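Worked Example 4.2. Consider the chain below.
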Amino acid sequence: MKKILMLVSLSAVWCCTGCTKEEEKKEEAVRYQVTSPLVSDTTITKEYVSQIQAIRHIEMRAQQRGYIQNIFVDEGQYVHQGQMMFQIMPKLYEAELQKAQAEANFANIEYQNTKKLADNKIVAPNELSMANAKLDKAKAEVSLAQTHLGFTKIKAPFSGIMDHFHVRQGSLVDEGDLLTTLSDNSRMWVYFNVPEAEYLDYRTKAQSGDLTNVHLLMANNQLFPFSGKVETIEADFNNETGNIAFRATFPNPKGLLRHGETGTVQMTLPLKHALIIPQKATFEVLEKKYVYVVDKDNVIRSREITVAAEMPHIFVVRSGLTKNDKILLEGLRQVKENEKIQYKFEQPAAVIAHLSLYAE
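Applying the procedure from the previous section yields the following structure tokens:
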């Protein structure tokens, strides 16, 4: 009987010991990691969809009516300023010039004869004035005919790259008909739209003079090798989108960029005393971001935050948190609102460093 009682007692002790160990393990299992926002100076990169345009992009149009007699260039060719591009058949305009020159010669002879008579006081001075006016008119007609003839030779107004032809050799063109387009791609204008809040941040921080430099991510996800400079901001916001247009100028010495391309402008902005938290400490409800904040009684409560910028593994918080708040770092799906928890506090710098993140 004593042996049986001893065995029962030992079993009870073992059971109690096992229960105690299970409770300790349970308590250890529900110790959550908690941290605070890291206050640090850093930089963020904003990206904006952009349209790329040549610094000069014009339409080449016919200034005279006639047949295209010659085309001296090819589509996509680089042409130099003053280079001949198109020739409109000049015969009609050459004939008009010869006619105008003949009339000018006749008027000149008539003027010279009238002048001799006027010098000898045979005719009145008014006759000489009329002959002189007739000569001036004839000279103006010559100048006009020369201008019309010059319009038959269409030359490049500046150096650039031609687009495709809208006419072919032998085509009949009217005055104003489109022949081709010409782009000066030595420098490129890149247009992108900036929201109002980010525009205000830019203007506030732009006094340092470093914020005018931007980079361009091309359509193939390769970074354009030359940086650009923000030179112009439009005067008015678009009331429908709440954006304002920026224009950055990029050098294009190798001609890689072409008119009409698209890309992504990357603008780097410095942030002083930014509040940084890990992305994994947040959750979303109806497209709004929240964190669990631990109060002084170790009770967790959800709180909405506003994100100023997103970077790999972290968020920069614009509002909703202070540097002294404690936020739940892990186990967000395992807790409930107003639940009291046990936690272990992790230093913010160590948490961020563990994310392998660079921050200035």
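Residues 1-8, 23-27 have pLDDT under 50 and may be disordered. The first strand starts at residue 31 and ends at 35. Compare this with Example 4.1 before moving on.
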